[in-house]
Q: What sequence folds into this?
């Protein structure tokens, strides 16, 4: 499956109902409905809208850009194939990210690997570790230490930690992505932060 961005310009001109700028004004639900009616260009707009963030989320779990892009493409393929199962009364993006996160976690289980990329590529207001370091080599070492600690967390805690504290999804969005109640997500997040802190302090002794 190819997004509209990868098709020849002549083909895009013939098949796309809207330009990317126009597509940005169209709701997800309308694009989903148009895709169901056979408008592939509408799905191309959805891909353009979410592809970069989906890859970024997957990169929180996979230390390989090529693999992350492959998993993102597989996610969009599965979403396209399962659109008939999507409940239009719900939001599209949590459903998309649920498929992507589950696909990524399944990859880990199959390969029995726990590989993490750099967790703090963006400066975020929700960062729960904000070390003041001037030497980039020190910061790189710190990130490596953080990866090693986070890698010790069980998947259910690690996932909510990544989605909330590193990707800034809201609690309600995470609940939709993981198909859990918000209260469960809040509890897991608190537990994940506590476990991280304990492991971090233990490592520093």
A:
């Amino acid at each position: 499956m190819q997004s509209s961005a990868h098709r020849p310009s002549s083909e895009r001109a013939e098949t796309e109902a809207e330009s990317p700028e126009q597509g940005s004004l169209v709701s997800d639900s309308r694009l989903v409905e148009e895709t169901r009616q056979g408008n592939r260009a509408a799905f191309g707009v959805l891909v353009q809208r979410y592809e970069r963030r989906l890859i970024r989320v997957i990169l929180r779990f996979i230390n390989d850009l090529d693999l992350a892009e492959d998993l993102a493409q597989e996610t969009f393929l599965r979403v396209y194939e399962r659109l008939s199962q999507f409940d239009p009364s719900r939001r599209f993006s949590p459903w998309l990210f649920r498929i992507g996160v589950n696909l990524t976690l399944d990859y880990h289980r199959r390969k029995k690997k726990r590989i993490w990329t750099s967790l703090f590529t963006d400066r975020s207001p929700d960062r729960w570790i904000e070390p003041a370091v001037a030497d980039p080599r020190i910061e790189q070492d710190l990130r490596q230490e953080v990866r090693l600690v986070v890698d010790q967390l069980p998947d259910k805690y690690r996932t909510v930690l990544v989605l909330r504290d590193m990707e800034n999804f809201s609690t309600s969005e995470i609940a939709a992505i993981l198909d859990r109640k918000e209260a469960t997500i809040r509890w897991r997040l608190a537990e994940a932060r506590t476990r991280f802190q304990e492991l971090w302090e233990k490592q520093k002794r």
User: Anything to note?
Assistant: Residues 118-205 form a domain with the Arc Repressor Mutant, subunit A fold (CATH 1.10.10.10). The chain has ten helices and no strands.
